[in-house]
Each structure stands twice: as structure tokens, then as C-alpha cells.
Amino acid sequence: MLKSRYKNLLNQSALYGLSIFMMKGISLVMLPIYTSYIMPSDYGRLEVLVVFSNIASIVLGFGLVEALYRFVGLADGIEQKKRHAAECLLVAGILAVISYGVFHFYSKDLLPFLPGKITENELYLLGVALSVGGLINIPLAWLRITERAGLFFTISMLKVVIQVSLTFYWLVNGWGITSILAAGAVSSVIVAIILCVIQLKETHISFSIRHIKNIITYAGPIFIGGAATFTLSGMDRWLLAENFGAIEIAAYAIAIKFALVPTLLIQPFTLWWFPKRFSVLKEQDGKNINAHFAVLGAITSVLLCGSLGLLGPLLIQQLTPTAYHGAIAILPWLLLCTLLKMLADLLNLGCFVEKSTQLQMNINLVASAFGGLLLILLVPLFRVEGALTALIAANAIRMVLFYYFSQKKVYLPYKFGYLYPAISAAVVATWFGQVT
After folding, report:
1. What are residue 283's phi and psi, to 5 degrees?
2. Considering only CA atoms, which of 51, 56, 81 is closest in space to residue 69?
3. 3-state DSSP of the chain
4. Is the pTM here over 0.90, yes or no?
5. Cα distances (angstroms) measured from residue 87 to each of 5, 83, 201
6. Whole-number Å distance between alpha carbons of 64 and 176
7. 146, 226, 416, 419 — which has fewest CB within 10 A?
């Protein structure tokens, strides 16, 4: 059983890995070009938009991908699976129309709420890409569920080629950060159209008030809890920019880029595993299999973070101008935050199996409230050090709560024996990266 799953994991993960690294890692690949054409102050402004994008994508995503995994994963028969996928896409389409209207008509009204002197045109271009996000994510999730990694890779590469080509062309022509935003908007719209056509040919449109109500009921708490985690994935930069100016967060933003690399590298595994874990749970040995792959993901996450702790300082020195090298000292602590998030995501199955996601919403609200309070208190006093302290404490609480309540709902026989040596190796590697 495990042997066949490992074979499937390796076959699918290779393509998923390339796809995700190119789609989400493009900002890291393009980092030397960005920092050559963009001043630290402008890069700080771009990071403010990235923070806004993080929270807006959670709001506009509305937890639909998680709902798709749950309802399709536990559905009986392919027709029922197609019906749930079609209903999720319909909800995503409605959200896309509403959100585009907001950005089209009210971008100017949103500017006073954003630090960093963002322009109306920049916010509008970002809004275009955000609006079609659900129309990209739902079809891509459907491709993962139906195990079509080849098509997933092809679509992902198309988006990367369009985005990189347009970004580079417009950067050379002096568009600054507008080039990045415009390229993202154009590539997102093109890919959203292609993906929607592909899914609609398979699932068509399905509308059931009862089913959609169930989807919204399940997704709603995920949306609320996810929106609350803005305090753990953006409020730090927001407060730093608000209190000390956009240039203050330039090096911090570079460190965040590198600290997020482990989440990109683990995604070949999670993209393969997360859509399957609900259906696997229904199998005869489902709990043991779930526990096995969750621990495998945890060990991999630890080793990835340790590798970035070792290599990250060298990469920062080689890929960025001297003005950004303050990111080296920040990187280990942000990697710890990343690891805590990854472990919480891997060890939380029990919080998502029921029809209601109230529990996971409450956990996110508690951790986010605690983190937000610490950020408000510590950032004005200790700047970056205060932000790091708050984020580590809040993410640690979030991970512990997810693990405890998940085990309480659905006990999985985790075997953490190999995890502890991996943690020790990661700590040593990160320390060595700082002293060399």
C-alpha cells in the first residue's frame, strides 16, 4: 500500500514541484533583476502591496479550495465529485465579479488605508489579478484531485512565461513596480480563462442551493480564520511601514522571500497529499497512512528550513545589493515561523473532517489575536526584533492548538522518532550559515 503511494507521490511531485517553484518562486528567481531596477524604498512599497495581496487573497478565496478538497474527497462517485467542483467554481465566479467591481470603482477610496504611498493604478492592477484568483485556484485544485500533473505543469509554465516576459520588458522600459503588477494582472486573466474553459467542459455548471449552502457553511469559518491570520502574515510589515516608512521593511521583505522558500519546496508533497488525505482516512488503514505521511512531511519541512538556514545567507549576499544584506540576521527567525506554520498545516487533519470548520476558525482567531496584540505592543518599541518575537510566539501557540485539538477529534498514531534528529541537524545548519 505505502509502496504504491510512494510511487504515485514521486511521479506526481516532480511536475508539481517544477510548477509551484516557477509560479510562486518567480519573485525569488527574478530577485536580482528586481533589486537592480527597483530602489529599496520602492521595493518596500511593493512589499506593502504583497501584504495587502496576502490578506485579500484569503478573503477572496473564501476557503473554497479547502471546501473543494473536503467535499470532493468524501464524495461517492465521479458525478458527485464533478457536481461539487462545479458548485465551488460557480461561487468563485460570483466572488470574482464582485471583487473586480470593488477594485474598478473603489481603488482610490482604499488608498488611505494603505501605507507606503501606493498609487491608484498600482492597486487596480493588483486587484485585477486578485479578482480572478479563485478562477485559477479552483480549476488547479480540480486538476490535482484528478491527478493530472502534466496539464497542471503546462498551465503553470504558460503563466510563468507570460508574466516573466512582460515583467522584464516593462522593467527595462522604466515602469518600476508597475511592470510587476501589470504582468501579474495580464497573465492571471489569460490563465483564468483557459482553466475555466477546461473545467467547465468536464464539470459543467451546477447549482444547488442546499449544496452551495453547505459549501459556504464549511468555507465561511475558514475564511474568517484565514483573514484573522493577517496578523501572522502581514501585520508585521504593515506596522513597520506605518511607523518607520517603507524603506524600513526592504531587508525584512528580502528575508521573508527566502524564508518562504521551504513552503514552495514542500508544496510538491502537499499538493499531492492534501487532496488525498480525506479519502485515505476512509480506507481500512487510513489513520496509520495519514500519520505516516504527515510525519514524513514534517521531517521534510524541518530539513528544508535547515537547508535554507545554511544556504540563505550566501544567496542573499550573492543575489542582492549590500543595502539588503541586513536580511541575513533576520532569516533564521523567519524560518522558525515558517516551520511552525508548516507543521500546523501538516498536523491538523482532525480539525477539518467535520462539516463545520468552527474549531479551526477559533484556533486561528486565538493565535491571531495574541499575535496582533504582541505586534502592536512590541513593534513600536523594538522594531524588527519585536515583530519576530510576536510572530514566533503566535505561530507556536497556533501549532500546539491545531495539534492538540486535531488529535482530540481524530487520533492519528504519529511516530516522531526521526523528527528530533532532523530538528537538531536543522539548528546546527542554520547556526553554521550565520557564522560563515
Report:
1. -75, 170
2. 81
3. CHHHHHHHHHHHHHHHHHHHHHHHCHHHHCHHHHHHHCCHHHHHHHHHHHHHHHHHHHHHHCCHHHHHHHHHHCCCCHHHHHHHHHHHHHHHHHHHHHHHHHHHHHHHHHHHHCCCCCCHHHHHHHHHHHHCHHHHHHHHHHHHHCCCHHHHHHHHHHHHHHHHHHHHHHHHCCCCHHHHHHHHHHHHHHHHHHHHHHHHHHHCCCCCHHHHHHHHHHHHHHHHHHHHCHHHHCHHHHHHHHHHCHHHHHHHHHHHHHHCHHHHHHHHHHHHHCCCHHHHHCCCCHHHHHHHHHHHHHHHHHHHHHHHHHHHHHHHHHHCCHHHCCHHHHHHHHHHHHHHHHHHHHCCHHHCCCCCCHHHHHHHHHHHHHHHHHHHHHHHHHCHHHHHHHHHHHHHHHHHHHHHHHHHHCCCCCCCCCHHHHHHHHHHHHHHHHHC
4. no
5. 29, 6, 14
6. 34
7. 416
**Which residue type occupies 396?**
A
Look at the alpha carbons of 139, 145, 149, 151 in this order and tell me if their dihedral is positive or negative: negative
Between CA 137 and CA 92 the distance in angstroms is 9
Q: Where are the domains of the chain?
A: 38-228, 233-436
Q: Which three cell numbers stand for residue 360?
A: 479551526
